[in-house]
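writing this on my phone so excuse typos. first protein, seq and then structure
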Amino acid sequence: MNDGRSLLTDREREILAGDADVSDNYRYKVQSVARQRVRGIADDVDVLREHEPEIFDELQQIVCEDDDS
């Protein structure tokens, strides 16, 4: 993938995709962490929009991509 963590770690992706054998409680914990990160993205978006519009545009294209598959 890439050199660092995006929104989720590789392990979190595995857990949320159902490809890891973890307890329901642990899965809920990973879901909670992901939700907290999603909520925290708002501050990052504001900074990118104001100071790095090209990066903001890239992010917007990725997030708003229409997935018809």
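second protein below, same order as before
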Amino acid sequence: MQEFVRFPLAGGGTVVVEVEGEPGLERASVPSGVLRKASTTFEHALGEVRTAAAAALAQFRNLGPDEVELKFGVKLDAQAGAVIARTGLQGQFEVKLKWVREGAVPSEEAPAEPEG
């Protein structure tokens, strides 16, 4: 069941987001396709996820890699705001840490092999 949620913007105006309703549940008071109002601003909702991502990133940076890549999905909900999306029964974070040996040329910048 698809639903639409209107998130107010801090600077004025709104943004409408299509969200997926809970499977198997049909709210009697909110028919499918009706526009619902979010309980928080769009910026506040994303700000909470940003804070969580920054905390996770800080933990991985403490390991001392040359590069850190953190990927996750964000799902918007009328009541909860923005949440980190899950897959199956698990939360989802994909983390890539990279250490480059001193003097080594990263593979993307490695010179081409001479043809011979």
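The chain has a mean pLDDT of 75. thats all i got for now
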